[in-house]
Every structure is written in structure tokens, then in C-alpha cells.
Amino acid sequence: MKILVTGGAGFIGSHIVDAYINLGHEVIVIDNLSTGQKRFLNPKAIFYQVDIRERAQVEEIFATHQPGVLNHHAAQMDVRKSVADPIFDAEVNILGLIHLMEIGRTTGLKQVIFASSGGTVYGEAKQIPTPESAPTLPISPYGISKLASENYLHFYRAIYGIKFAALRYGNVYGPRQNPHGEAGVVAIFCKKLLKQEQPVINGDGEQTRDFVYVKDVVEANVLALNLKQPLIVNIGTGTATSVNTVFDILGRLMQSTLPKKYGPVKPGEQRTSVLETSLAKETLSWSPKFTLERGLSETIAFFENES
């Protein structure tokens, strides 16, 4: 199978590229390296350093390779940045997808696997854990852009017959996550604790998230290749974990004595996000295999090797 992975040098995308190549697929990667890193690229992938908004260059790549599957992970993924600059967020996350779909529909694209956001599309959900049937009321431009993208995928399915799976991720963590951005609290804490620097917890730390390990997320992206029907599905653990708890587990595993230090609440940040995942089991035969402690241990090992 010929698969184009956008964001394939990034945290989640690079792991997916590895998995697809290990399964024998031909993989083409588009990444502008704004957050991705060349060292995470699989050497067997065909790589283009291109921004998905650069239409002429993207058209050339599609015309050359004619991928049957698009795995779309390129994104502006910072909730805080989306609040500060919603225009940029929409340009990358909404217009970027439309560029890809408009080009793909004329070059034989058959299927899209899309990285959506279970952590943001529901907003402050009343039902916890939150099922896919819950109202979608995102409170950040980032969440709005992910929801709009899902609706565009419905459109391209209805009009052009392009199958899609929108995977609504919980809070993904693991090796290769960027410790310098705003999105990855696990990576940020790991890097700080390794350097014996004081991490800052936004708010009171009791905000809860559904932390799902990157290897489990990769497995969902592999299983989604076999889908015959359009699907929007949560990819998480169904377990609520507070940021304070993550800090405590990391501190114990890393034998750190640094105390908790609290800072201001992030604008646009939700209080609670936990996903109900029975649909993933039913439709994809997917369920998470990694406990939080095991996933955090592997993540710590990665950052220790990096330092």
C-alpha cells in the first residue's frame, strides 16, 4: 500500500511511519519540520520538507506518488497558540486539510486516517467518560478546527467516496514528544526533572486527562487501514488522571525530590477530559495495552538516553 503521512517526522507521525514501513508499506512523508525532527525520520521513507499549505509543491508530490491512503498528522497542535492566533490555527488545521483533500480527490486518494482530538472536541463534557455520541462544544480554536476537519471529511466521503477514520486521541505521550512546546506535559516534566529544574503545573493540577501511550495510538492507526466504513472513534484509556498524579508518578520513578510548583491556568484549557473507548474495541478491535506506569517508564528511558 502507498501511504502519505503528513507530520511524519513529528512525535506521533514518526512512530506511525515506522509501523507502516515495518508492515511493508511504501511511505511518503511531508513535514515542514516546524516541530518534527529529521532524526526521527525512518530512512526507508521518501521525505519532502514541505508545508501542507504550499499547494503547488503538495500537488507535485501527489502527482508523483499517487498515494491511496493519507494519514494526516501535520497540525498546529498548541491549544494556547490557537487562542492567541486563531487565524493561523485555521490556516494550518482547516485549510491545510482542504488543500490535501482537493488534491487527493483528483489523484486517486481512497482513504484518510485523521488525527482528531478527543481531548478538545467535546469541550467541558457532562458525560464522563465521554462517548462519541456526546455533544461537541469545543472551547478552543484548536478543538473547533479539529471538529471542522471531521465535517470536511464527511463531505469528501459523501461527494467523492473517500473513506475516512477520524481518531479522537486523548492526551498522547511517549518517546519523541517535544519537551519544549505547550502540548506535552509528560515530556515537559520529564525533561525538567532530569535536569533537576522546577516544572510548573498550570492551575491547581487537579485537571484530569486521558493519557494514552503513543504505541497504543500507533496500533489504532495500523488497524484503521482495514476499515471499510467511515468512522469517528475515541482513542484513549477511559481513565482520568490528574496532572498532579502524573507529576507524582514521574517523581517517584525518577527519584526526584522537587516539590510541586503551581502557575496560572492556561487560557482555553479544559478541566476534565476522559474518553469512553468501547466503540474502538467494537469497530477496530483496539484497546490500550500500556498502563500509565509502564508508558511513563519507557518515556523516561527515552529522555534519559537523550540527555
TrEMBL record:
NAD-dependent epimerase/dehydratase domain segment(s): 3-236
Source organism: Candidatus Gottesmanbacteria bacterium GW2011_GWB1_43_11
Domain of life per record: Bacteria
Taxonomy of the source species: Bacteria, Candidatus Gottesmaniibacteriota
Listed name of the protein: UDP-glucose 4-epimerase
Stated family: Belongs to the NAD(P)-dependent epimerase/dehydratase family.
